[in-house]
Amino acid sequence: MASPGIELGAALRAWRERVTPVEAGLPSGGDRRVPGLRREELALLVGISVDYLIRLEQGRATNPSPQVLGALARALRLGSGERELLYRLAGAVPPPSGSVPRGVPRGVQLMIDRMSDTPLTVFTAAWDTVQWNPLWAELLGDPAALDARARNLIWRYFATEQVSGSRVERDAAQADAFEREMVADLRRAADRYPDDRAVAELAAALREVNPRFAELWSRYEAAPNSPSRKTVVHPELGPITLDCDVLTIDGSDLRIVLYSAEPGTRDAELLDELRARATTGGRRLAATT
Predict the structure, then answer these.
(1) Gap between the Cα atoms of 102 and 115, Å rounded
(2) Are 261 and 274 in contact (CB under 8 A)?
(3) What is the pLDDT of residues 112-145, one digit of tens each?
(4) Cα–Cα distances in angstroms (integers) from residue 283 to residues 27, 109, 132, 252, 272, in the given order
(5) CA 85 to CA 15: how far, in whole Å?
(6) For the HTH cro/C1-type domain, which residue ranges apply (predicted)?
(7) Phi, psi at residue 133, to the nearest 5°?
(8) What region does 12 belong to: left with phi over 0, alpha with psi -120 to 50, or beta?
């Protein structure tokens, strides 16, 4: 297995060779033997010596400073996923940045638009509702009827549903697992986006209103999301047991939650009935504003 230094060097060379001088704001320089930036050009953009860049690319220099890594990421025009990879290969922790993303990439939007026959919603990394389709609204209730704060799944669960109830039926073990996952996810969002005041305020408000949330928050647990089966108690059709999957979109930290039923079951028939209702309603994918 290649050493971390060798892996970092190979990545730097690959990224350098794909960036053109024009993209980097430099003159093209006429005929070039290799595509992309020369070492001298990248070193100039980053503010390091050519010798140091050569040692980085050859795996002979280790532990570049956060300042150098940040300058390399900017000069090489790395996306968020590549930026995180750069830091990991250098043995460093990627610095947090900005606010929790809410925008849905075009390719992801096209994908979810084609999934109208599946109850589906899009959440941010902090579990704010971004979009939902008509079938989701039929199954779990229309988020449009909720105020802005209640459209956050974690707030709704810990601050309102434990009083008013939820359509999702959970036994004690399922509730414990769900609560731990949600609190761990919100802590990750708070750690990753420390400049997002809304996330910090949400966590603070939940610690005030719910002792269970406050207790879980103090544990600093990491609880990964996992596929599960959930029973949704529809007000007219009764219990519907469905598989629940969570897809995470790299680079945007969005989560797509979708439900599905085992073919040939009574649950699948009930989901078909909800599809008919959603289609009759003629509603398109909704989005928060």
Answers:
(1) 20
(2) no
(3) 999 989 999 999 999 999 999 999 999 999 999 9
(4) 52, 16, 11, 26, 16
(5) 12
(6) 36-85
(7) -105, 170
(8) alpha
pTM of the model: 0.70
Q: Give residue for tokens 């060097």.
A: 9
Q: At what angle do helices 4-18 and 50-57 cross, to 10 degrees?
A: 120
Placement of tokens 């989005």 in the chain: 287
Using alpha carbons only, give the angle 275, 259, 158 rounded to the nearest 5 degrees.
Answer: 115
Helix (H) or strand (E) holding 46: helix 39-46
CB count in 10 Å sphere of residue 11:
19
Q: How far apart are CA 171 and CA 185, in angstroms?
A: 21
- Residue position matching structure tokens 């953009």: 45
Task: Quote the tokens at residue 6.
Answer: 């060798």
Residue ranges and CATH numbers for the domains of the chain are 4-89 (1.10.260.40), 106-287 (3.30.450.180)
For the segment 201-234, what is each residue's pLDDT rounded down to a tens digit?
999 999 999 999 999 999 988 877 777 899 999 9
